[in-house]
Amino acid sequence: MTVLMEVKDLTTRFHTQEGTVYAVNGITYTLNEGETLGIVGESGSGKSVQSLSILRLIPSPPGEIVSGTVNFRGRDLLKISEEEMRQVRGAEIAMIFQDPMTSLNPVLTIGYQITEALQLHLGMNQTQARERAVELLSLVGIPMAERRLDDYPHQFSGGMRQRAMIAMALSCNPQLLIADEPTTALDVTIQAQIVELVKRLRDKIGMAIIWITHDLGVISGMADTIQVMYAGYIVERGPVSEIFRDTRHPYTLGLRQSLPRIDRRGERLIPIEGAPPDMRKKPVGCPFVPRCPFKIDICSLEMPPLIPVEGGVSEHIAACHVDVRKGVPERG
């Protein structure tokens, strides 16, 4: 497969009055053309920050991309000029943000916000852009699309606003779509509709997707690869079927065990004990140590490297000193 984007040693910090926040800590991964990558982790794990870093949308100050490279189609996005980066955003890499109500401008019509990108990136005139906007709204399932172009965001429901955001993101046929928890604020039925919509559009357009979420269940049916993040580090990565069949990191195992399953009714969910780490303190060893039931002495002293798991497929890597299949938890 052809590599679309290669991220190497990406490190992002936030310098605050309370101290430096170690948001993303030297992550490295590749994304192939047409691949759907699901990035999973709890709030504060660095999922959104790494994606905003790729697009150079980190506010500075207090944010700073300290090191790394993001090679996208032969260019390092962290080194090109701001003018070149503006041409990449929207046209080649598009992003759907978590809350469509705060992402859409409340005083501009939906039609204006879609046509603006078409005129800027594709050089369309107003008539062409408006016709294309109608096509896009129809594509994402908004009825009476031509009429709705002149509506404002507050006149759309939550699900329709998210569909409008997807239409905007797809307007210039990007090679990569980054979806940052796009279904979090929606009810379960609308969540399922949005997931199916994105899957259908992905298959039709052939774009790559980075889908960011805290919920393994949301991406289990749509991702090719799952990347699990904790405290700004990648702790496990592999094909979706392999991650669910042969989980190798205690944190990923905790996420799986806390996931409701229809075939296990009546069973209690097992929570991940403890609290998320203080991101102002850079860990010496594994950041998951305080919450890990499998920890051994070396875990507190040495950060485990991301290496291929024993007996697994070559694409399955994990950062853990213990084989969770053989390790004995400290508690029950």
Roughly how much helix do the residues carry, as a percent range?
A: 25-40%
Round the mean pLDDT to the nearest integer and report it: 87
Uncertain parts: 328-332
What is the number of helices? Answer: 11
Q: N- to C-terminal separation?
A: 44 Å
Q: Radius of gyration in whole Å, from Cα?
A: 21 Å
Q: Largest beta sheet: what is the strand line-up?
A: 6-7-8-3-9-10-12-11
Structural class label: alpha/beta
Outline: globular
Spell out the blueprint of helices and strands.
Layout (H helix, E strand, L loop, with lengths): L2 E14 L2 E14 L3 E5 L6 H8 L8 E10 L2 E2 L5 H7 L4 E4 L3 H4 L6 H13 L3 H14 L5 H4 L9 H13 L5 E5 L7 H18 L2 E6 L2 H4 L5 E6 L2 E7 H6 L4 H8 L49 E2 L8 E2 L14
Can you tag this structure with a few keywords?
four-stranded antiparallel beta sheet, 332 residues, 30% helix, alpha/beta
Structure description:
- The protein is α/β, with parallel strands linked by helices.
- It has eleven helices and twelve strands.
- The protein has helices spanning 47-54, 82-88, 100-103, 110-122, 126-139, 145-148, 158-170, 188-205, 216-219, 240-245, 250-257; strands spanning 3-16, 19-32, 36-40, 63-72, 75-76, 93-96, 176-180, 208-213, 225-230, 233-239, 307-308, 317-318.
- The strands form two sheets. It has an eight-stranded mixed beta sheet with strand order 6-7-8-3-9-10-12-11, with helices on both faces.
- Strand 1 (3-16) and strand 2 (19-32) form a beta hairpin.
- Helix 4 (110-122) packs across helix 5, helix 5 crosses helix 7 (158-170) and helix 7 packs parallel to helix 8 (188-205).
- The protein is globular, with a radius of gyration of 21 Å.
